[in-house]
Design goal:
This protein has one domain: SH3 type barrels (Roll). Helices cover about 15% and strands about 30% of the residues. The N and C termini lie far apart (about 45 Å). About 30% of the residues are buried.
Length: about 120
């Protein structure tokens, strides 16, 4: 059965193959696209990869363990935002609060010039 992702879901996904320094492998991803896109016939979603390695990056967004499905804190990496086929999604792990999704999406927008930084 194909997964039915919703904005704010965390899914295990297979991001390989990759090129260069893209995030790859089997890892958690945050579904950032709106539900109208997630249900569209194109069968693609916009995701933000999640790492469990804390880095010194002001744009990374902490995701708390628990309801998210993570067993330890994770960090959404908006500099790695990309569209993927829903066929790459393997299983739903959990869900994050909408405020977390909005912050990660806003940070991705800043990185592509859609907003202003206040740093």
């Amino acid at each position: 059965m194909a997964p039915s992702p919703e904005r704010g879901d965390l899914f295990m996904a297979d991001l390989d193959p990759i090129v260069g320094r893209e995030q790859g492998g089997r890892r958690q991803v945050l579904i950032a696209s709106i539900d109208q896109m997630n249900r569209a016939p194109a069968s693609v979603v916009i995701i933000i990869p999640v790492s469990t390695t804390p880095r010194d990056n002001l744009f990374h967004v902490r995701i708390e363990p628990g309801i998210s499905g993570l067993d330890r804190a994770g960090y959404a990496m908006p500099e790695m935002v990309r569209s993927i086929s829903t066929k790459r999604l393997k299983r739903r792990a959990g869900h994050v609060p909408i405020e977390t999704v909005e912050l990660a999406a806003r940070n991705a927008g800043i990185l592509i010039g859609l907003g202003r930084t206040k740093f």
